């Protein structure tokens, strides 16, 4: 592994992958929070015509020209989507889908036309569909670094307006912020992130890099700053791990491995994040149901004891089962472990019986008092 890390090509790929992960994580966080996940997909597919136009203008596979063309068409697609949603009755998702389909279809047509003309210059141009990280050179990193720097600087300078627009666009407009211009600027910066990853990840898979780190960070963080920082870190980790995996497994494409890594991070976050993860939520709900069930059963014993005017009244377990329509032995055992009830002997031909302990009486009485207080406060 140490010898592998000294490889010039691998170092270049890792640097590019980390840059893509950072910028995708930072700007993708805003797309996730604003529920515009399809925006990244639209911009990445709409960048394909720009790739072809940049190639035709430069007459060669010049990354600067290609990225410039991709940026122009991606921003144009975003503006087209905004125009469709503002001047027609179509919703945002319909406008994004229409723009995505139109942009990608136009890109495929242009790509096919360029390849039909022949010539060595267009060789490898179709690699922008799925990315070709191995073709990245140190010279290619400079425009990528420039785009990343511009985007990060824009986020830092416009942090407060972007934050307000993300969470409450109506209040931002009332406060005098140019919401429409900020939305257009944020869209342009997301387009920068998409364009940055075209060389390594490709137009088809770049949407996952825009969304996956932000979606993963959202599960762990409750603040925008924490989410943006963590999303950048997770994006960088996905880029580095995917790049290393492709180096350790020759023949596997770097771009798809980066996307798979980012998706795996998002999946793990969705499952195990402490506050939002599916597994912790299931566990808390299970504990809550168990707690509610045991409290209800304790209340039943308390009511029966009060009806018989005997706090040591022995309640048959079968009667409790019939009342609640379930087997209550596990809950009664749990209550016994908490010292709230205790099993008692009764007649030999009858089933098990339970009675309240002194602590159980106090607990049930306090619970009933709390319930009466909540009912009075609601009325």
Describe the structure.
By secondary structure, this protein is mainly α. It folds into two domains: 2-276, ABC transporter involved in vitamin B12 uptake, BtuC (Orthogonal Bundle); 280-378, Arc Repressor Mutant, subunit A (Orthogonal Bundle). Helices cover 74% and strands 3% of the residues. The protein has 16 helices and three strands. It has helices at 2-5, 8-33, 37-58, 63-87, 92-116, 138-157, 159-167, 169-174, 179-196, 206-220, 224-248, 254-272, 278-307, 317-324, 329-337, 358-378; strands at residues 315-316, 341-344, 353-356. A three-stranded antiparallel sheet has the order 1-3-2. A hairpin with an 8-residue loop joins strand 2 (341-344) and strand 3. Helix 4 (63-87) runs antiparallel to helix 5 (92-116) and helix 11 packs across helix 12.
CATH topology of the largest domain: ABC transporter involved in vitamin B12 uptake, BtuC
Main beta-sheet annotation: 3 strands, antiparallel
> What characteristic shape results from the CA principal axes?
elongated
What's the helix count?
A: 16
Fraction of helical residues: over 70%
Low-confidence parts lasting 5 or more residues at pLDDT below 50? none
Which second-level CATH architecture of the largest domain applies?
Orthogonal Bundle
- The helix/strand order is HHHHHHHHHHHHHEHHEEH
Derived from helix and strand composition plus strand pairing, the structural class reads mainly alpha
Rounded to the nearest angstrom, the distance between the terminal CA atoms is 69 Å
The overall pLDDT, averaged over residues, is: 83
């Amino acid at each position: 592994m140490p010898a592998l890390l000294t490889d010039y090509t691998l170092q270049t790929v890792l640097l590019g992958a980390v840059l893509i992960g950072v910028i995708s994580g930072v700007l993708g966080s805003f797309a996730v929070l604003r529920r515009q996940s399809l925006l990244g997909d639209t911009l990445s597919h709409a960048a394909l015509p720009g790739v072809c136009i940049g190639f035709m203008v430069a007459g060669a596979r010049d990354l600067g020209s290609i990225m410039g063309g991709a940026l122009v068409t991606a921003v144009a697609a975003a503006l087209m989507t905004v125009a469709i949603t503002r001047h027609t009755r179509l919703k945002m998702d319909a406008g994004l889908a229409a723009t995505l389909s139109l942009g990608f279809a136009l890109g495929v047509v242009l790509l096919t036309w360029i390849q039909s003309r022949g010539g060595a210059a267009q060789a490898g141009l179709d690699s922008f569909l799925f990315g070709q990280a191995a073709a990245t050179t140190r010279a290619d990193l400079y425009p990528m670094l420039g785009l990343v720097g511009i985007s990060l600087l824009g986020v830092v300078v416009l942090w407060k307006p972007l934050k307000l627009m993300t969470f409450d666009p109506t209040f931002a407009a009332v406060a005098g912020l140019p919401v429409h211009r900020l939305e257009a600027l944020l869209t342009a910066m997301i387009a920068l992130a998409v364009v940055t990853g075209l060389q390594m990840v490709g137009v088809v898979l770049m949407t996952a890099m825009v969304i996956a780190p932000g979606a993963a960070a959202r599960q762990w963080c409750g603040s925008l700053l924490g989410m943006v920082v963590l999303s950048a870190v997770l994006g960088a980790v996905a880029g580095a791990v995917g790049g290393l995996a492709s180096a350790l497994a020759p023949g596997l494409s770097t771009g798809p491995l980066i996307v798979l890594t980012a998706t795996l991070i998002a999946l793990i976050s969705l499952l195990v994040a402490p506050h939002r993860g599916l597994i912790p939520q299931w566990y808390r709900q299970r504990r809550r149901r168990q707690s509610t069930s045991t409290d209800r059963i304790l209340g039943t014993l308390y009511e029966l004891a009060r009806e018989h005017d005997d706090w040591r009244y022995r309640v048959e377990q079968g009667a409790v089962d019939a009342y609640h329509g379930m087997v209550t032995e596990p809950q009664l055992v749990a209550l016994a472990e908490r010292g709230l009830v205790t099993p008692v002997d009764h007649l030999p031909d009858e089933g098990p019986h339970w009675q309240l302990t002194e602590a159980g009486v106090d607990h049930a009485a306090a619970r009933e008092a709390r319930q009466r207080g909540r009912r009075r406060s609601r009325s």
